[in-house]
């Protein structure tokens, strides 16, 4: 499988956004493998450069994390890759502006399906469980919807099926 030919160079081939637990990282890896391009998870880059996200939140606060996130997103969008953003990255107006020049896929997931996915407490803003997730997603959903060129609900689909839909959309 090849990379779609109408994607401008340089820059991200496709950017995945959406709610925490929607499957952005796992899906992004599959899409990148199918397109034979690099995969970038901006949260993983932050962790590699600055340590665990929970620690950043605990020691420096959400504002510091968002500054680090903004920088990671800005850099990632310049690279020819499949890029996944953390759920809150789209809250930054500069990031929303940057996304205007890219193909953006939103992954959605139902509360019932995500409940198992978010168990374990690795996400600082979701430490209070499904109620916190629902509130967070309700607040962010208008931004996700505004930015998305294509949306896939991951609630009942395998990661492979989600990746296949995205690749088919990119090639259409």
What does this structure look like?
There is one protein chain. By secondary structure, this protein is of the alpha/beta class. It has a single domain, classed as P-loop containing nucleotide triphosphate hydrolases (Rossmann fold, 3-Layer(aba) Sandwich). The chain has seven helices and five strands. It has helices at 24-35, 42-50, 53-76, 93-99, 111-117, 130-147, 159-171, and strands at 14-18, 39-41, 82-84, 104-108, 150-153. Strands 2-3-1-4-5 form a five-stranded parallel sheet, with helices on both faces. Helix 2 crosses helix 3. The relative contact order is 0.22. The model has no long low-confidence stretch (mean pLDDT 89).
Strand-helix topology:
Layout: E1 14-18, H1 24-35, E2 39-41, H2 42-50, H3 53-76, E3 82-84, H4 93-99, E4 104-108, H5 111-117, H6 130-147, E5 150-153, H7 159-171
Parallel strand pairs: 1-3, 1-4, 2-3, 4-5
Helix pairs in contact: 1-7, 2-3
């Amino acid at each position: 499988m090849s990379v779609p030919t109408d994607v401008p160079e340089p820059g991200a081939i496709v950017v995945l956004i959406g709610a925490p637990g929607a499957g952005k990282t796992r899906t992004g890896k599959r899409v990148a493998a199918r397109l034979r391009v690099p995969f970038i998870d901006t949260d993983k880059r932050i962790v590699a450069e600055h340590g665990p996200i929970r620690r950043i939140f605990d020691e420096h606060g959400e504002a510091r994390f968002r500054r680090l996130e903004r920088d990671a997103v800005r850099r990632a969008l310049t690279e020819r890759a499949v890029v996944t953003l953390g759920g809150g990255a789209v809250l930054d107006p500069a990031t929303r502006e940057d996304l205007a020049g890219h193909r953006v896929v939103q992954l959605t997931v139902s509360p019932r399906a995500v409940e198992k996915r978010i168990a374990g407490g690795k996400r600082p803003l979701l430490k209070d469980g499904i109620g916190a997730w629902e509130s967070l997603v309700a607040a962010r959903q208008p931004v996700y919807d505004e930015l998305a060129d294509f949306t896939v609900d991951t609630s009942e689909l395998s990661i492979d099926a989600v990746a296949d839909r995205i690749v088919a959309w990119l090639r259409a």
